[in-house]
Amino acid sequence: KTLYPLEITSESERNCYALLKKTSRSFAAVIMELNPELRNAIMLFYLVLRALDTVEDDMTIDPETKVPLLRTFDSKLLTKDWTFDGNGPNEKDRIVLVQFDQILIEYHKLKPQYQDVIKDITHKMGNGMADYINDKEFNLNGVATIKDYDLYCHYVAGLVGEGLTKLSVAAEFGAPSLIKDMYLSESMGLFLQKTNIIRDYKEDLDDGRSFWPKEIWGKYTPELVNFSKPENLKDGLDCISDLVLNALGHVRDVLVYLSLIYDNSTFNFCAIPQVMAIATLAEVFNNPLVFKKNVKIRKGTTCKLILNSRTYEGVLAIFSQYLRVIHHKCPVSDPNYLKIGIKCGELEQFI
Ligand code: PS7
Ligand code: MN
Ligand code: MN
Ligand code: MN
Ligand code: MN
Ligand code: MN
After folding, report:
1. pLDDT tens digits, residue range 262-301?
2. pLDDT given at position 109
3. Minimal CA–CA distance to 236: which of 247, 246, 214, 221?
4. Least buried of 5, 26, 71, 215, by fewest C-beta within 10 Å?
5. Residues 6+ apart with CB under 8 A from 45
6. 66 C-alpha to center of ligand 3: Å?
7. What value of ipTM does the predicted structure carry?
8. Of these residues, 100, 155, 209, 257, which one is catalytic?
9. d(CA 104, CA 114)
């Protein structure tokens, strides 16, 4: 049973929830349970950004078309019926762009304040994504520095955190101090995005791109693709460990952020992706399969995580458990052995 049953009042609203379900099992589940004050705003925020990301991800769209489309994407929100049929036939979520007119109808029904947040973030994200569209050679080498890595993650995820925080505080579901301490929202997004990037090594390289920063992988190999060869496995695993250590740098902020959310449905919405991320980091840690396929956490594990993340204490216990898993999986031969130990200990202390 659900606390806030969905009451669909129009065909376009029904179509939007269908799009949500088609494009993300995990986000659909948490968005459907949201307090009705924010449910449609966050559902539409998700669909607009999913559409933008579907333009970014489509490697069959020429950069000459893609870059201006990304940069002006927010202006489509001023129209009532824009759609886009220019994705390659196999692009995963192309339906969101084909039916973008359905999203627009519902978007224009939102409170103006909520529309403004969505449009502003879409504008900033589209321009940030455009800055990272480059020739094939550049993409195959990933991003250069850790600073570039953080900036890319800011555009595609830190900004989502900023927008969600502005919506939550406007609805009085979170502490107003979250607005002045925006670095906490930034960490909420970066922790998810970095986990996604580490896990998607193979998928992204197969698509002809990578977001692993060279400043990190360059310590372990001269060519990023080398990690998929068996003779470079140890170097690859050491590199994953370095990337996980970098991602763990956001955990303290994530836990502080979650302590400042008052509304239960918003807390669940924020907490579930974060506990899935720490479980995913524990799964990919020292795991050779990352170089072969997209490693996913088991379905039973996901159910347990969702069930146990309903309280702050439950979330802390989950983080504590997976930090221990990471610590125990770390071999003494790992060049970051000491740093991983210190970071896990430090966070354990905080918890
Ligand atoms: C507005 C709910 C809760 C303060 C589509 C949620 C893709 C990891 O690239 O689909 O397909 O592998 O697996 C979501 C902060 C953003 C960051 C970013 C919008 C948390 C377009 C999620 C989601 C902030 C860019 C999805 C960042 O992963 O990626 C709403 C607080 C979209 C959040 C993308 C990635 C999200 C992501 P891919 P996935
Ligand atoms: Mn993308
Ligand atoms: Mn994507
Ligand atoms: Mn993808
Ligand atoms: Mn990805
Ligand atoms: Mn994905």
Report:
1. 999 999 999 999 999 999 999 999 999 999 999 999 999 9
2. 98
3. 221
4. 5
5. 117, 118, 121, 160, 163, 164, 167
6. 15
7. 0.94
8. 209
9. 14
